[in-house]
Amino acid sequence: MKKKVMIINKVISKNNLKKDNNNYIVELENVSEEFNMGSSVINALDNVSLKIKRGEFLSIIGTSGSGKSTLLNVVGGLLKPTIGKVIVEGIDISTYSDNEMANYRKNMVGFVFQSFNLIPTLTALENVEYPMIFSGISRAERLNRSEEILEKLGLHDRLKHNPTELSGGEQQRVSIARAIINEPEIILADEPTGNLDSKTGKGIMDVLKTINEEMGRTLIVVTHDIYISYYSDRRVYLSDGEIEKIEEVKV
Amino acid sequence: MKFSDLIRIVIKNLKRMKLRTALTVIGVIVGTAAIVTLVGIGIGFQKSITSQFESVGLVKSIQVYPQKLARAMGPIHGTKPTEAEEVPLDDKVIKEISEIEGVEGICPLITLTGAKLQISNYISQASTVGANDDMLKQLDIEFGEKFKETDLRYIIVGSDINKTFYDINTEKSVDEIELLGQKGRIIIEQYSSEGGTSITKFPVIVVGILEQSYPDYDLSIFVPIELAERLLKASKGKSFALREGEYTAIQVFSESVEKVDSIVEKINEMGFNVMSMEQILGTISTIFTILTGVLGALGAVALFVAAIGIVNTLVMSIYERFREIGIMKAVGASNSDINKIFLYEAGAIGFMGGVFGVITGYIFGKGLSAIASYFIQTSTSEGLTTFSGLNLFEVPFWLFFGAILFAILLGIIAGVYPARRAARLDPIDALRHE
Ligand SMILES: Nc1ncnc2c1ncn2[C@@H]1O[C@H](COP(=O)(O)OP(=O)(O)O)[C@@H](O)[C@H]1O
Ligand SMILES: [Mg+2]
């Protein structure tokens, strides 16, 4: 009971903060990411600076190969920038050790992938439960929480199904459940509708939008589809690893 | 990560690659079984041989020889070359030795191989041993009773003597004959240099039969020491080299195994050469310990090969679980979480192989032991029944648990490299992998 009250308080304070333009949860300062491919060097990100507000829904748009996924992975702590700072809640995570990075991914961010990336040998319930194993949460609580979230996402009759027995939309909802199970501040979605038909895709975007609005989580969605970006508050245009422009989305 | 979750994940992973896990485990089973079987046989042999000696109290006996004779027999442990004149083994020496702390009894060692025991029409050529009261104390009677060393007509025989007789007329060996209470005689034939033969006969009565102990005793005839001296004189005639009251060897009986060493030392200081069963057993034990070690090393080689199998299996599973490892890292698994999962998988393979290997090795060793003792029994049915029901295989507790622990340890060591590789996977590479 106590915990729920706390969560509600958190949400309220976040909604308040959302209006405060000076509160940034993520700040990228002159971030470059270079990949060595044999003798040539690929500049996946080229001197990118970007400030993301707490509770904001940001979309990143660009053609294939423009560096969108790389940007998301840098924010998500899967990738360290070659140059530059990635400041999250005031701390530069690019200086983190492997262990600190793992902790950061466990507690601060949740990933949603284009290809779902569910573990094929585990059921929907077990997939959602999985991140909590590394947080040392008891099995009983894990199963309770996973079940609760899956039910909220309309998957109460799919708990024991393996990913292969689920439709694309169902799989993506399972992976969204997995992304938010540890209650991270930031949710990162890399073309979450890329493998879905447009109707199902819309459903997924609605789920993400709800999580952003009702739970107050910061949401970053990468897409090459301009229509998806209409769900977001701001959109960032990326081209050849550089930010072309940033614009507010008008409703 | 909680330990229970770690175990759950490990079991799930091993189940997922059932066939490969099974094959890898079989490798460990073979290695562990080899260790248990080979080392168990080494230990079993050592135990059964030493217990043969210990059971008859032989470890408590010490043989004493004069310096010269001992040297002629070759180097013996404890030989101290002295410039001093050779000290003869006589009654004075016997008295001196009997006063050493820990000496329970003493008996001159007189063994005749040329004497024959005749009972009615049957003759045995088993060796004849002189025994005084001290020596008789060391023997256990099964039927009848012991003699006093002064009863020159009484003898006792080993438990298998009744199988050593042949018929005087047909010269064929006879089946077991009844000996207890029988009258007979001991015959000595002496060939003189002129070509003539003189025969001496001593009348005797069999008053006792010994319990089965060890082959040498089971096949000996024990006569009073004075009779043995007379028999010896009769067989050697004038050429008898030793002077009156001197012996070629004497046997000393210690109160306990622990006192053997100090007694041996004191007799050595007196200028005699000493051979004790305990020393010999010590040497046998050392040889067997080395042999057991070599056998164990052979088994360890098999287990080492199995460890390479574990490395291979786990490295292959890294490739299969490439993407999964990336997902685990993306949702917050640390390098050490992944490292642990792989290490425990390796350890679990070692554990399963160890447990089943010990069981397999035990069954295999027992089987070999049964076959071996069957063959020993059938091939020695004429006499050495001592070896029947012999346990040539023994797995002590330390070997049982040691082998399992060793298999687990080796598994974990084999897991170090794959676990490290899995833990260090770049999550980006792993997630991009299709
Ligand atoms: N791990 C990597 N190794 C080498 N090159 C990479 C790697 N990740 C991305 N790239 C390259 O960096 C550029 C940007 O890739 P990415 O961020 O995936 O683009 P997008 O998601 O916009 O399609 C591409 O040219 C891609 O080939
Ligand atoms: Mg991409």
Structure description:
The complex is a heterodimer of chains A (251) and B (434). Chain A has 251 residues and is of the alpha/beta class. Chain A has one domain: P-loop containing nucleotide triphosphate hydrolases (Rossmann fold, 3-Layer(aba) Sandwich), CATH 3.40.50.300. Chain A is 36% helix and 27% strand. The longest helix of chain A is centred in the first third of the chain and has 18 residues. The termini of chain A are far apart. With 434 residues, chain B is α+β, with helices and mostly antiparallel strands. Chain B folds into 2 domains: 203 residues, no CATH class; 217 residues, no CATH class. Chain B contains 13 helices and 14 strands. In chain B, a hairpin with a 2-residue loop joins strand 4 and strand 5. Chains A and B meet through helix 3 and helix 4 of A and helix 1, helix 10, helix 11 and helix 13 of B. The complex binds adenosine-5'-diphosphate (ADP) and magnesium ion. Magnesium ion binds next to helix 2 of chain A.
Largest sheet of chain A: 6 strands, mixed
Q: Tell me the fraction of residues in β-strands of chain B, as a range.
A: 15-25%
Order of helices and strands of chain B: HHEHHEEEEEHEEEEEHEHEHEHHHHH
The average pLDDT of chain B is 84
- By CATH's scheme, which homologous superfamily of chain A applies? P-loop containing nucleotide triphosphate hydrolases
Task: Please outline the helices and strands.
The complex is a heterodimer of chains A (about 250) and B (about 425).
Chain A: H1 2-19, E1 24-37, E2 40-53, E3 57-61, H2 68-75, E4 83-88, E5 91-92, H3 98-107, E6 109-112, H4 124-133, H5 139-152, H6 168-180, E7 186-190, H7 198-214, E8 218-223, E9 234-239, E10 242-248
Parallel strand pairs in A: 3-8, 3-9, 6-7, 7-8
Antiparallel strand pairs in A: 1-2, 1-4, 4-5, 9-10
Chain B: H1 3-16, H2 18-55, E1 61-65, H3 67-72, H4 91-98, E2 103-108, E3 111-112, E4 116-119, E5 122-124, E6 127-131, H5 133-138, E7 141-144, E8 154-157, E9 165-167, E10 183-191, E11 197-210, H6 215-218, E12 220-224, H7 225-236, E13 250-254, H8 260-269, E14 273-276, H9 277-320, H10 322-330, H11 335-379, H12 397-423, H13 427-432
Parallel strand pairs in B: 6-12, 8-11
Antiparallel strand pairs in B: 1-13, 1-14, 2-13, 3-6, 4-5, 4-10, 5-9, 7-11, 8-12, 10-11
Helix pairs in contact in B: 1-11, 2-9, 2-11, 2-12, 9-10, 9-11, 9-12, 11-12
Bound molecules: adenosine-5'-diphosphate (ADP) and magnesium ion (MG).
The site of adenosine-5'-diphosphate has 12 residues of chain A, from strand 1, strand 2 and helix 2.
